[in-house]
Amino acid sequence: MNERLEKSREIADWIASKFDGIGVVRDGRSEFAATCYYVVWQHQAAVFRLYREGLIAPATALLRCAWDAYIRGMWLSRAASDEAVAAFLSGGRPPPQKDLVIAMEVADELPPGILSAFHRANYSELCDLTHTGITQLLQQWSNEEICARQEPEQMENILEFVDSIALSSLAQAAVMANEQIVAHEALERMSAIRRR
To answer: Cα separation of 162 and 190, whole Å?
Structure first.
């Protein structure tokens, strides 16, 4: 388990070194999309630190926050109309998460339903982990006693998920900053996580 936490720490440190000083066009859209991607990295960096301290509930609560920031960044950079961006930046609420996902699938011409399928299969559980639902409570209760517990495989999957979207976020921001080498390196690291 410590080895996997160390891998996440290394990923977080590498992402931080690449985000430091990255510049994107200031067009009222790109800088805020890139900032969403930066927030994803901050959540990723917090998740492994919380795990290291044995704080499973707050570590897993951040998964939805990371996913929401990732999808919001994608929506701002690729799918939102100029009017929607202006409304959001003036304090308005973005569309519901499922609408953002659908807009992304259309804008990026992704395989039909790929993000929607993830959303349907996982978003409720991500919300459950954030808002003290039964999934989160069961991580804190075992054999009639309160204790933080999680199977190593669960932790591995969670770290893989948050590491992957943090690397993807860096790749997205790097493309926006015309830093193609950084984008390529981030995607290579993301592929390596999935090949393990």
So the answer is: 11
Give the chain's end-to-end CA distance (angstroms, integer).
15
Tokens 């930046």 found at: 89
| DSSP-based three-state secondary structure for 53 | coil
What's the angle, vertex CA 167, arms to CA 175 and CA 98, rounded to 5? 85
What is the pTM for the complete model shown? 0.90
Q: How far is CA 15 from the centre of its chain?
A: 13
How would you classify residue 104: left for phi > 0, otherwise alpha for psi between -120 and 50, otherwise beta?
alpha
pLDDT tens track of the chain, all 196 residues?
689 999 999 999 999 999 988 888 888 889 999 999 999 999 999 999 999 998 999 999 999 999 999 999 999 998 999 999 999 999 999 999 888 888 888 887 666 677 888 888 888 888 888 888 887 887 777 778 887 777 788 889 999 999 999 999 999 999 999 999 999 999 999 999 865 5
Q: Locate 59 and state its tokens.
A: 């570590």
